[in-house]
Here is the input.
Amino acid sequence: MNNESNGIGNNYDDLLKERLTMVRDWKLLNGETLGYSRLGLKYFGSEDLVLQAGRRFYPRPLPAETKKMKGRECYKNALLYASKNNLLYCEGFAYARETGSALEIPHAWAVDKKGYVIDPTWGEGLAYFGIAFSLDYVLKITLRDEHYGMIPDVPRGRHNPFLNGYPSGAIFTAFEE
Here is the structure.
């Protein structure tokens, strides 16, 4: 049985991690040139943050009783679905099955404690690499900032993980393997 058919991984997993590494390295190279290191950033962008603090998650089909939620609202969908189903909220990058493209897309999904993805927006993507967050932390930040998403494109307000990372307990790491 190959990795893709048993749901444990596939070639897209490796490609996704390689692409994130390539983008991160480009930002590091160009950021150094522009003097970003003087800013004291812990992470040079979302790719660096996800590569250092995240992990691979395992795609699987959406449960039969679950309907896909509204497209292009993955951050909201993932938070609502995770909240209603006692799952973890996860955010990072993924490859969409529908596009057939190997272009990494910032995305959010729900995940169980074994690392299996439940993606209420896409149904099932090809590969997922991201950070699983404590639901309490996500709800607190979402309500405080009135904005969905834990990994910003650019820092906003008091939410700047590029500079400070995340507080203790914000990231879930105790997965059952």
User: Anything to note?
Assistant: Helices lie at 11-34, 46-53, 74-84, 135-145, 161-164. Residues 137 and 168 are 10 Å apart (CA to CA). Residues 11-164 form one domain.
